[in-house]
Amino acid sequence: MKIGIIGLGTVGLGVLEILVNESKNLKAKGADIEIKYACDLDHDKVFPNNFDKTTLIKNYETILNDPDVDTIVELIGGDNLAKKIILEAIDKGKNVITANKALIAKHPKEIFSRAIEKDVNLFYEASVGGGIPIIAPLLENLVANNILGIRGIINGTCNYILSEMSHNDLEFDTVLNDAMEKGYAEADPSFDIEGIDAAHKICILASLAFNKTVDVKKILTNGITKIKLSDLKLAESLGYSIKLIAAASQNNNSISISVEPTLVNKKDLLSNVEGVFNAVEVEGDYVGKTLFYGRGAGKEATASAVVADIVKAALKCTYKDRHYFNIEEDAILLGENEFSGKYYVRVGKTFPELEKISYQIEQIAEEYIYFTNTIKLKELKNILGNEEYSLLRIN
Amino acid sequence: MKIGIIGLGTVGLGVLEILVNESKNLKAKGADIEIKYACDLDHDKVFPNNFDKTTLIKNYETILNDPDVDTIVELIGGDNLAKKIILEAIDKGKNVITANKALIAKHPKEIFSRAIEKDVNLFYEASVGGGIPIIAPLLENLVANNILGIRGIINGTCNYILSEMSHNDLEFDTVLNDAMEKGYAEADPSFDIEGIDAAHKICILASLAFNKTVDVKKILTNGITKIKLSDLKLAESLGYSIKLIAAASQNNNSISISVEPTLVNKKDLLSNVEGVFNAVEVEGDYVGKTLFYGRGAGKEATASAVVADIVKAALKCTYKDRHYFNIEEDAILLGENEFSGKYYVRVGKTFPELEKISYQIEQIAEEYIYFTNTIKLKELKNILGNEEYSLLRIN
Fold it and tell me: Does position B318 have pLDDT exceeding 70, yes or no?
């Protein structure tokens, strides 16, 4: 199989590294993969030894126009040029492997309908959970199950920040700045810390799990920017970790999906997922609870998932249509007004109405922390009005 | 695809249940599966509603002799009759799905060579980790990786016993008897509590991970029968759980595989795997550490994995040869004499020689507990001589 890789950033270089170094192993496993083109505007990079630099090109059109190329590997990210490239590749009958979560989360109908029409393979295992096998196990290994729910830690940057705050007694801003300096967080980290990246990922998982198309814009999305060290310490003293939890569940015909900072009981495996690691818990009606854990990002881990998809395409995988979810049926999402749960509320003044519905109240310096009984989110927000507050779900 | 199920015990009935109840769902996913025969000597069972009892037969030969049957599902267990049936089915060109770990662990050469020759699918996902997707993810999703090591809790009975001892302050015998009464442990539990079942499972995982044939008889195998409540309490006070850990790693060309009761640090995810749950950690050179967790046994969870294999065969999976490991190359296993590590030794008298190599020594009633520095297992056993002792690895 002849492939063209478009985008030689961190993950792209990782994919090159594996394909070059493991070419003999992969061939022994039945996958004879030739990198015909590696495309990037910048050729001034450290390439793996043994990488054939004559395959380097700058114009992706060359790949799209070469009928010899079976499969393109899109690793440029974003959702403009990437979408154009993917649609054009599909039109030309090429398989597409991508790690682009934003693209799949935001434009599944356009992309899937084209891929189904042209009968090509479209795989995107690396788009969720980096190196963790999650999409294929969900679709293939858990195929017997009706999925009841998914719950996970799927943004490594947030988890790293929360872990560092907790282990080193640091405030959010300090850790964020440090992470940005070290390159663990993007120069513009808002995408991660506001929960948007996690929303894209849970959007994909929920769509596959429930076989409906989820509108990513309707997902209840809260980030971790308001979390203080004192929240972590208080939570810890009560037997909880704080994690950014993405969750999706189906009840009758409506689906509730949320990304929320959450108090997770220390006995829960998710509470022990530290640093850049990710974990996804999937509950099926027959299998019960399963959990998939590993590195959610990073050069080699993500490349491991991309290469698995390339191998799958090379082995002429017959699961073609299983990686699409139903684009004919739009998921009915629970709106923010209908969400309810127990909440940890940190706020600068007392609220007699909150006192009534809280099972525990703490005071830290000038702030009050309410642990509410189950309450509708809308009702809670009504009580809090215009006051500034921080909300964490209690799991 | 027309299938014949042989063996309607717990798992067999679970498979029937899923196939009958989810037939429409599975068909929508591309797998049109017809149960042509369900074979068991005992027909006096509670079958799922809507199950067509006219498919019930007592003689498995009917299935083998019917050219209409594409795929047999062997769920009788054991390694005599099961082997005969599987070999005969393969000879007749039928796919084989099985959950039989003993059979795969003990007779891979005979079975695989026949299946390769006849070019049929042979899947056995349910043989390790019950409902947990582990074999397919290892072979398919982690295909890019050279596997460095595997470490897991893969016997639910042992883990249940250890969890119960720890949570309810009970001694081994008490919990074992209770588990036998409740049916959580077999009438003859020695297979589980002596570590033999775990040895079968790690044998399969190691063979697949390292693509060599492992002789199951050469695996260092220790059970949990000597563990006392006081061991668990002492371990807990020092920040450890005690788990029966099956582990395999490759170093140069030799492979070390062991099943040993082990002190696992509380910060390790494996230490938080409780009750009948299983978990397998796989470390790959690119992906790093991944972990797969779920129900390691039980009717519906195991059936979930069996059905996934049936669906895979129904979808005319092209991964055929990927579920075989190399039967031409025998793994060179580290013998017991070469194993080394830190050990927790409980023994009825003091040993000055042990004192010298221990970093911590405790006394409980009449017994002494040594926490040794890294030592060769052989050397340790020499020191202990004929004295009765209990050994736990320290992770």
Answer: no
Query: Nearest chain B Cα to A267, which residue?
Result: B272
Q: In this complex, do B304 and A145 lie within 8 Å of one another by their Cβ atoms?
A: yes
Size of interface A-B (CB pairs under 8 A): 172
Contact call for B272 and A272, based on CB within 8 A? yes
The residue ranges of every structural domain in chain A are 2-132+300-323, 135-295, 336-394
Q: What is the DSSP string of A35-53?
A: EEEEE-S---S-PPTT--G
Name the average pLDDT for chain A. Answer: 94
**Chain centre distance of CA B67:** 33
Q: What is the ipTM of this complex?
A: 0.93
This model's pTM is above 0.90: yes
CATH entry 3.30.360.10 includes domain A135-295: yes
Candidates A286, A308, A321; nearest CB to B143? A308
Q: Just give the CATH number of A2-132+300-323.
A: 3.40.50.720
How many Å from the N-terminal Cα to the C-terminal Cα in chain A? Answer: 47
Contact A321 B25 (CB under 8 A): no
Interface residue of A20, A290, A295, A311 to substitute, partner B, most B CBs within 10 Å = A290
Residue A339, Cβ neighbours under 10 Å: how many?
Answer: 18
Q: Which residues of B are catalytic?
A: 201
Confidence band, pLDDT 50/70/90 cuts, at residue B324: confident
CATH code of the domain made up of B338-394: 3.30.70
Residues of chain A with pLDDT under 70: 317-322
pLDDT at A182: 84
Interface test with B, best of A24, A142, A287, A326 (most B CBs within 10 A): A287
b/e per residue A98-122 (b: at least 16 CB within 10 A): bbbbbbbbbbbeebbebbeebebbb
How many angstroms separate the CA atoms of B260 and A100, rounded? 43
Is the predicted pLDDT of residue B252 greater than 90, yes or no?
Answer: no
**Strand ranges inside B118-207, DSSP E:** 122-123, 147-153
Q: Is A381 a catalytic residue?
A: no
Which pLDDT tens digit goes with each residue over A310-332?
999 998 766 555 678 888 899 99
pLDDT band at B322 (very low <50, low <70, confident <90, very high): low
Which CATH number does B2-133+300-323 carry?
3.40.50.720
